[in-house]
Amino acid sequence: MYLELYDFNQKPEPFSHYTTDTLWTDPWIAQQMLKTHLDQGTDLASRRIQTIDRIVGWLDRKIGLSGKKVCDLGCGPGLYATRMAARGAKVIGVDFSTVSLTYARSEAAARNLEIEYREADYLTDDLPGEQDIVSLIYCDFCTLSPEKRRTLLKRIKGMLNPGGRFVFDVSTTRQFTERREVATYGHRPMGDFWSPDDHFAFHTTFLYDQEKITLDRYLIVGPQRRFEIFNWMQYFDPEKLSSEVRDAGLVVEEALNVMTGEAWTPETEELALISRA
Fold first, then answer.
1. In angstroms, how far is CA 96 from the centroid of its own chain?
2. Domains, the chain, ordered by start
3. Which of 120, 177, 182 is nearest to 152 (CA)?
């Protein structure tokens, strides 16, 4: 156990381990992630519904949704896709979580909305083409390595009609300055989130000051199973983000405050970017 804990507290190379599939495809944890998405008391997995309504509202005012073909990448339980479809968009949602998509489909049926949901990995699987808008919302972009970001941006450019828009949001370097390195340990510190069985959880946060990256690393130890989770987060300023987008052949149109749709300022935390093919 000493060697395992020693290794756990060593700082790995940025984006050297990925465990995203565990969060979203493990039968138990995926259910807990869905509950967190839908929990109106926290913004941990999804923003609160009032905030989502506000974001979809300014998106509609900025570029229009009615009659547009929209692909929402990483759509999760369809919280944004549902609202875009209700405003007249022809929506395809893409996600690799079976649990989230099952919920999203049931919501679309209950609201009588024609939304197509595809279970797929947007980094590797086939994606729909001839889209007017592609969205990637709630900082999904930040969890990807530079190589994966380049791959995704090129794929998105290939999805868009000429003049089509890519809309996404990221965490900013201002938010990075608020993070701290911590190490904690507890007995079921998040209740049943990680496992319905008895377990202990170790959590270490690493900061990569030069790269503006954080890693929240978890080690979950139970009587029958132990596993790790690596949650990476890249933080951006508008210049770095715009450079990556332009390198993919997209034209940057606007940098916006995610919460209001108004022009981004250095005092703003999360940043939304609209670019076009």
1. 12
2. 2-37+175-233 (no CATH), 46-171+237-276 (3.40.50.150)
3. 120
Q: Mean pLDDT score of the chain, rounded to an integer? A: 95
Backbone angles phi, psi at 205, to 5 degrees: -105, 125
The whole-model pTM stands at 0.95
- Reading across the β-sheet that carries 271-276, which strands appear in turn? 116-119, 90-95, 69-73, 131-136, 160-170, 271-276, 251-257
pLDDT of residue 189: 96
Q: Is 258 left (phi over 0), alpha (psi -120 to 50) or beta?
A: alpha
Residue 97, pLDDT score: 94
Tokens, residue 164: 């089509």
Residue type, 189: P
